[in-house]
Amino acid sequence: MKNKKAASKTLDFFQKTLLLITASVLFWLSNPNIFFEDGLGWLAWFNYLPVFFLIRKCNIRQSILYGAFYGIISYGLYGYWLNTFHPLGLIIVCIAYMIICALLFVGLKWADLICIKNGWLLQFVCVCAYEYLKTLGFLGMSYGVTAYTQWKFTTLIQICSVTGVFGLNLLVIFPSAFLFSLISKKQAKQKLIHQVDFERKSHISAYVKKEKALAVNSLRLTYICGLTWAALFFSTLIYGNYVVRQPVSKKSVTVAAIQNNDSPWKNGIEEYSRNVKNLIQLTEEAQSLSSEIDFVVWPETAVAPSIIYNYDYGNDVRRFMLISQLLNFLDENNAVFVIGNSHEVEFRGAEKQYYNSALVFESGKNVHPPEPQIYSKMKLVPFTESFPLKHTFPSLYVRLLNGGSHMWQKGDEYTVFNYRGLKFSTPICFEDTFSTICRQMVLNGSRCFINLSNDSWSKSTACQHQHLAMAVFRSVENRVPTVRSTASGVTCIISSNGKIEKIAPEFCQAFVIGKVPLMNENSQTVFTKTGDIAGMAEAVLGAFILLIQTIVVIIKKILDKK
Questions:
Q1: How far apart are CA 282 and CA 257, in angstroms?
Q2: 560 confidence band (pLDDT: 50, 70, 90)
Q3: Is 421 left (phi over 0), alpha (psi -120 to 50) or beta?
């Protein structure tokens, strides 16, 4: 008897572990990864299926443990490239998702317990709510949101211009919940039928008849939800097919996006001079191929020394000479330049402030002396660009600085630039992974995103494609094109429908030249007008149903005691 119990426990542990590993690997492979640079997006439609079965097998305590391991394994595999920057970065992410996913699994288990027949629907809503909530706050990250796996499915993702990425999330996550309900309820129904057959021999009880009826009704709800999903899915494809066929503006400007492929870790005036020389050379090569280039874009912090500060106040002669050489080149050029720069501001009697900025220059207007329009990054990367708790945890702050982190000041304005008929904004690096930031830029009047990024530190194609996948959605949501100039990839031009029209090879010096249409200034998508209503609704609905069901369970227990 003891041997049977031990064998049963071993089998149960093996099944749970297998489900945990399967769920983690599905999450990993569905996103851009080390083996498949674009990700296997079709796997995302089943990402949470093993999670739901794992939850069913666990009790509350076990759900905490397995949730913690799911967070560590999934995001450890997904964000392995953080280790290249600093092992502490990967450790922080794994710890964060260990806690987040442990809480998620507890919530899913509680939903399974309080909604015996249709807990799968509540679990589905809770998963969608979790994916929205994890993008909020200081530690908020959009990396890993399920819908981003569909970035190559151009027709499907057009619905994001109405619902945003979290509306698409509903479509992509639902099949996992549906299949879980279908399989588990069919199994339960089969068991019930065997029970009925057994009871029939000894006068079937009314209780068993009632349970059978409930099981059948519950399965009907699953089918109804499945048919509803199918109708929404095909309607989404019809809408997407219609949208991608719509003509775009014939008026356009020509843009050259430069990829300099320089190391972000090397410092010193020799390195800075070499970087600028490479940028100028690549620009001249691009302009030799096309004399119609209106805009030239250089990546994030492509010019490391502050252009304005070193020209106006700097006492380093070599830096001043480098900046003067750069400004002379800009002033002799006919294109508008968008340049990533480490912008420094010094106030009398105060500590110097550093900003990760985009500077816009136009010959004959704001080059000599340098008085460019400026946008400074507003959403800073936690722990590597911003750490508000530096006085609370000074030792950790010192470790972050020693690990290569560069702390910046936060910008305070969603700047919209207007040159040669193109109204554009410049989300810097991972700012284009947040729909709220890009949406606000469009609300302010922007009709094109020019993203300046530097993911070269990751030395990972997977990292760069994960970032690119999210950038695609910003164009679709707001129906505006995107130009990406990156240090090492992915430098490209994305249409307003999310189609990648021009792309440069990664980890080499390159550039792309392409036309960017001048979009209608009066047109705004439903998403641009309303924002992430789908995500907010998922979070509110999940919390509300959990609360109501919990209250109902408590009341029932109180009444049963009486």
A1: 10
A2: confident
A3: left
* Strand-strand pairing, 449-453 and 482-486: parallel
The model's pLDDT over 329-346, given as tens digits with 9 standing for 90+, comes to 999 999 999 999 999 887
SS3 425: strand
Please compute Rg for the chain using Cα positions. 27
Question: Any idea which residue has 């749970």 for tokens?
Answer: 16
- Residue 484 · residue 257 · CB < 8 Å: yes
Could you give the residue numbers annotated as active site?
300, 377, 429
CB count in 10 Å sphere of residue 337: 22
pTM of the predicted protein model: 0.91
pLDDT tens-digit profile of 165-206?
A: 999 999 999 999 999 999 988 877 777 666 655 555 555 555
Q: C-alpha 75: how far from its chain's center?
A: 13
Mean of pLDDT values over 426-445: 94
Task: Reply yes or no: is the peptide bond before residue 505 cis, omega within 30 of 0.
Answer: no
DSSP-assigned letter for residue 393: S
Within 13 Å, how many C-alpha atoms sit on residue 119's CB side? Answer: 18
Residues whose CB is less than 8 angstroms from the CB of residue 252 and which lie 6 or more positions away in sequence, other chains included: 515, 516, 517, 518
